[in-house]
Amino acid sequence: MKRLRPEQKLDYVLADLAQDVVDAADPELRQAASGRSLRATLTEIRTIVHAAVSRCELLPHTLPKSDDPIEDQIDDRE
Amino acid sequence: MQSYNVNRNEEADEATAAIAHAIQALPEEDLLRLKALARLRARSLPGVEWADVLNETIVRALRGTRRWSPGVPIISFLAWSMRSVCDEYWRKMRRERTVLVSLEGTGASWTVEQADEAPDADPERTAAAVQMLAILDALFAEDEIALKIIAGLGDGLSAAEIRVRYGLSETDYDSARKRMRRTLLRHNLRGWER
Asked: pLDDT tens digits for B153-174?
């Protein structure tokens, strides 16, 4: 078996664990978040999300970068 | 040519609007998923907060640098974008280090382009990965099966391959994954304050 570098190992592990988070059932998520105020947590997340969306509305229009080699590499890997 | 560009601009506008609408309409559970994902990713990036990862993920999604394919849930699209954001973080770090080394006149021979192609050449990323893998090991230290699963995942094995390697039944494996998921969610939504 080919020996993987730590960053490659971590990439595999995090990709799998991230999928676990995506697939988690809704009650599991609510239960996990209930240690502090769920409302406060959601407000915090919404604030970040809305700020990011608002920031983009102020940015000049950008076309998809189909000729961006970095993005192409990522797409190939995925 | 001009009408082609106008059409592409309109298409891009529509795609961006669709992504923005989907993000703003995310249900509460998906917002929690976003935080858990961002925190998990940020934990492996020195000096980066989960809010930064989440912010950058949304900005990149709305800039249209990645296409949101029809039928893909927006949360899955954002989870993949988050992975790219972390890769970009390391590329940026590497470019900045290369520029710094060049400016110091130490005879470094890499250019920015070469740095991105050179294999096995990012000791900082390696060190951060070792540290994060150790954190995950510590997180599951009390759970022998979870540690085996992490080791198997790190070797790029599938669930079936992990079960064979470590002699785990399907029930053993599935139960451990459930424990791991709960631990991960708890730590990424409550603990791991940084």
From this structure: 999 999 999 999 999 999 999 9
Select the residue of B55, B129, B185 nearest A10 (Cβ to Cβ): B129
Cβ distance B39 to B52 under 8 Å? no
Looking at the complex, does the CB of residue B21 fall below 8 Å from at least one CB of chain A? no
This complex has an ipTM of 0.82
d(CA B84, CA B78): 10
Kindly identify which residue of chain B lies nearest to residue A66, measuring between CA atoms: B65
Query: In chain A, positions 51-70, which contact chain B (CB-CB < 8 Å)?
Result: 51-53, 55-57, 59, 61-65, 68, 70
pTM: 0.81
CA distance A42 to chain B (A): 7
Residue type, B4: Y
Residue whose entry in the numeric block shows the structure tokens 């939504």: B189
Separation CA B82–CA A30 (nearest Å): 22
A77: amino acid identity, one letter: R
Cα–Cα distances (Å) from B91 to B42, B117, B118, B131, in that order, read: 15, 10, 12, 19
What are the domain boundaries of chain B? Answer: 2-96, 100-189
Question: How does pLDDT run across B19-77, given as a tens digit for each residue?
Answer: 999 999 999 999 999 999 999 999 999 999 999 999 999 999 998 777 898 899 999 99
CA distance A48 to chain B (A): 6
Per-residue tokens: B98: 């290369």
Neighbours of B13 (CB within 10 A): 13
Give chain B's radius of gyration (CA, Å).
20
User: Token match 């229009």: residue?
Assistant: A61
